[in-house]
Design goal:
The protein is an alpha/beta fold and 516 residues long. The protein has helices at 2-17, 55-60, 110-121, 140-166, 185-195, 303-313, 341-354, and strands at 34-50, 67-83, 91-97, 125-129, 173-183, 209-213, 219-223, 244-248, 251-252, 265-271, 281-282, 300-302, 317-322, 361-362, 366-368, 373-378, 385-391, 393-397, 404-409, 417-423, 433-436, 438-440, 443-446, 452-453, 470-474, 481-485, 490-493, 495-498, 502-506, 511-514. The strands form nine sheets. An eight-stranded mixed β-sheet has the order 1-2-4-3-5-8-10-13, with helices on both faces.
């Protein structure tokens, strides 16, 4: 029985130390298929304005003249996509919102669904959501209530996943990595999720606000206060603020909503010939509203001024601009996406939010043949998995979950190097860091600085402190120069040459032993 236990322990240690690195996610279609869970309720009994009637509603069928003072409760649903066969315990989430000017559209729009499916194949969990429709396009202030409703609903979807992650975690979402995006009106939902953050920034019309009613609107009815950003829908104890966004032909009510470099990062796609949402600034539907008598919408600021504002405040952003894609900047045909859209979204989130930070490796690159066993380490706490590799040596002590390794170099190997590739807890692959190693029986190590501390690595031509196989040279100096060896240092070197005008002060109880 003892032998069996020992064998099992040995197998476990072998698999622990020499585990296969995670497969890189987010940069390609890692999964061939996705699974869909449909019609998940995320927001209950939220007030939606009723149609107000009139000529334009009757001929279009769209709720574009709604009575904001009269509402009916509705439920909101989402469809959730997950990569088939994925076993990762936590994944980043992207919530995607359809376009339609806040008067039409649904989560079932083909391109929104296709975005969700393709992003899920790269390793994300994705969700397409419904939000409340209905706008009054004849009053610039009242129209802002439609955007605000959509923002509240997008935030409710974020809260749904945060609440689930805190309980059953049915969808294995990392609550710290929730992003939101969309097209057109859906992009408005995303941009204002990111940058409309305080009660002070709320449009005045989202509070109690008058609207004409009755015959010829001669009477005044009062539209109810829409409440705070997270005061409508379910799971209100959580924040509905997303960590980052993508915007397809989107805009924002005021660029001043974008306040600093700690705001959510954004990747934007917009075409200069967009006649629905301005690339620069202006009223939405500018090319169409001339045909609607009495229309009145507020000026909004498109992707170009948003990018300028982000640059001015140091907010990380990526602006992909086009000249001939029109408003549907992501739809190449009636059934296909432009090939740069999914990678543009996925790679941006990966590079800015998921990829481990750059690591730096420390350890000796010039190794004495007499001391082939060395320790190497990388920056701690920046990764959860370390893929170590070695050429021209072997590991004495190595774990894929440790930022430090011990190696023995083969002094006869013609090529020697050690490398490490980091992975995050979400299996995002970082950049490889490599040290090339030179071994020899002796090295020359020359002091490069003026007066300074002997123990300053940067003072030596080898970039490391003198050791037993080093011929140490302190060259001639143009003026009196002293190199100081601090107390409690014991050093053995091969030889020592001190040039003119140079002195070496060895403080007690330090000691330098010269072999030759």
């Amino acid at each position: 029985m003892k032998n069996v236990v020992s064998l099992l322990i040995g197998v476990f240690l072998y698999s622990y130390v020499f585990a296969q690195p995670p497969v890189n996610r987010y940069n390609s279609n890692l999964f061939s298929t996705v699974s869909e869970t449909t019609n998940i309720l995320f927001s209950s009994n939220v007030p939606q304005p009723v149609p107000g009637g009139g000529f334009y509603e009757s001929i279009t069928g769209y709720p574009l003249n709604v009575d904001e003072f009269s509402t009916t409760p509705v439920n909101l649903y989402m469809n959730i996509f997950q990569p088939t066969g994925d076993t990762l315990s936590k994944r980043p989430l992207i919530i995607i919102c359809f376009g339609g000017g806040f008067v039409t559209g649904s989560k079932d729009h083909w391109s929104i669904r296709l975005l969700a499916q393709e992003l899920a194949k790269r390793g994300y969990v994705t969700a397409v959501i419904d939000y409340r429709l209905g706008m009054n396009i004849f009053d610039a202030e009242l129209s802002k209530r439609a955007v605000y409703r959509g923002v509240q609903d997008g935030r409710s979807a974020v809260r749904f996943f945060k609440a689930d992650a805190a309980s059953a975690n049915s969808y294995r979402v990392d609550p710290e990595q929730i992003y939101i995006g969309g097209h057109s009106a859906g992009a408005f939902v995303a941009t204002h999720n990111a940058y409309l953050e305080t009660e002070i920034e709320r449009p005045a019309s989202t509070y109690v606000w008058p609207q004409g009613c009755g015959l010829f609107d001669w009477n005044t009815c009062w539209c109810p206060d829409q409440g705070c950003l997270d005061c409508v829908g379910n799971n209100q104890s959580y924040s509905g603020h997303a960590k980052a966004i993508f915007s397809l032909a989107g805009a924002v009510g005021e660029t001043d909503y974008m306040e600093g470099n700690e705001d959510p990062k954004v990747v934007m796609f917009h075409s200069e010939d967009d006649e629905t949402v301005p690339y620069e600034s202006g009223e939405p539907f500018g090319s169409l509203l001339w045909a609607v008598v009495g229309s009145d919408l507020p000026v909004v600021y498109g992707s170009s001024p948003m990018s300028d504002r982000a640059d001015n405040i140091g907010l990380p952003n990526d602006f992909k601009t086009y000249s001939n894609r029109g408003h549907d900047v992501h739809e190449q045909t009636s059934s296909t996406l432009y090939t740069d859209i999914v990678p543009g979204i996925s790679d941006w989130f990966f590079d800015e939010l998921l990829k481990p930070n750059q690591h730096f490796m420390s350890g000796k690159t010039f190794v004495c043949n007499s001391t082939p066993e060395q320790i190497y380490e990388v920056t701690p706490d920046l990764a959860s998995y370390y893929d170590w590799e070695i050429i021209g040596g072997s590991f004495v002590n190595m774990s894929n979950w440790d930022n430090q390794v011990t190696v023995i170099w083969d002094i006869n190997a013609p090529i020697k190097s050690i490398s490490m590739t980091p992975y995050s807890s979400l299996d995002a692959k970082g950049d490889e860091v490599v040290l090339n190693i030179t071994s020899a029986s002796t090295f020359q190590n020359t002091w490069m600085l003026g007066s300074d501390n002997w123990s300053n690595d940067e003072g030596w031509t080898l970039g490391q402190l003198p050791e037993s196989c080093h011929h140490v040279i302190i060259p001639n100096q143009t003026s009196a120069t002293n190199i100081n060896v601090l107390p409690n240092i014991s050093i053995t070197i091969k030889s020592l040459h001190i040039g003119t005008n140079a002195t070496l002060t060895v403080q007690n109880p330090s000691q330098i032993t010269v072999q030759d």
